[in-house]
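Researcher: Go.
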Amino acid sequence: MYTTVVIPGKNWLLSLAELAAFFEVKKCKFQIESFSKEFFIVQFEKKIKPSLIDDLGGVIKIGEINTSFQTDVLKRAILDKDKTSKNEIGNIISDTTRIVDDLISSEKKTFFGVSIYCSEKRLRKIAKAIQRFFGSLIKKKLSEQGKKSRFMGFSKDRRLPQLSHVEVLKKRLIESNGEFIISIDGHQTWLSTTKSVHNPFEFQKRDIEKPIQRKIFAMPPRLARILVNLSLCDQKSILLDPFCGVGSILQEGLLNRSKVIGVDINPWCIKASERNLEWLSNNYQIDKPDFRVIQGDIQELSKKIGYEEIDCVATEPDLGPALRQVPTDPYAQKIINKLDRLYSLFLQESYKVLKKNCRCVFVTPYLKTRSGKAITMNIDEKAKKLGFTRVFPLNKEIFGKTIIKKEEMWKIASLTDVNKRHKTGREIHILQK
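Model: Structure:
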């Protein structure tokens, strides 16, 4: 087994669900040994390629674990300032020779950084002290080998001592094995070397450099990629987005080398999607891109597409009006009621066009109200009547035996993506025919 640390994005549950779906498609067996909003410790049956991070929307960093030890040793070293424990950690690092050996470069002075990801509340408060401790240890080990080094520090106003993915890219720390990730939970501490990071510039390029944009309603490329992965889309799949807009989801499907079909009632959206997909194909050198965009109403979807022709549906239908103020409960419910027929038609038609045992991943509105409640759409009854079954994205098989409270995870039915700045959030559902 190969043990890896995965650093998720802000929506860690969505990141974990995407990871589970992604490796299901890849037929790569894995098990979660520890998880928190800060990091996942994942054991894989075979070694994974660091470059796969480019195919994920919800993962920030992937690191190769070099060694681990009990967190109690770290507590004694930092909290109690116990010299024996400090020496024990130093010896562990020395014994794991590749930690320092891989870092040594041809440069006169080796540059490196340390990022702390801690789910243990008591230690999170002193994360900066832990970072300095490990930085000094590594610097000392380099000095013992006659190598000068420079340890990257942080400004005092930084809340947590963590290098951003942008900093790792700009400092070229992947090439030099120059970032160390310290992952700490209540029982175990892992020391890893970062092997790949999320490249925000590529996602930004697909967002703001495409020829036609739709700023208010468009889905961010990272979230579009997550939906594509949740749908179990692979290179052999035919992916359908029946509310394609300007083609954000179609783009991510095409980058996956899938055949993509978009449908939208708005003729402007059809032209916009076509131009954006042509731009994507040229800029990313996609050989023989297979895409088709069709104008049509949702109630005519099966007539346009045919019965049981589609391998996966990933889409975001209408989420209601753009809200300037936080709505009252009655107004939020009015928005949901008004959208009810559209979603009913969407589910009916999606069921017709999907092949058996295939997935439909879609978004419904998540409306935050003045009362503090969230008004959402109940789709379970509609889906069940049609013959859909709900997919629970975090099934029990992916969790190790030692994980506590894992039952809470596999009971999660839908996933929410809610930005504090926005009045309308997203609730993501996964159904299977």
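Model: The two ends are 34 Å apart (CA to CA).
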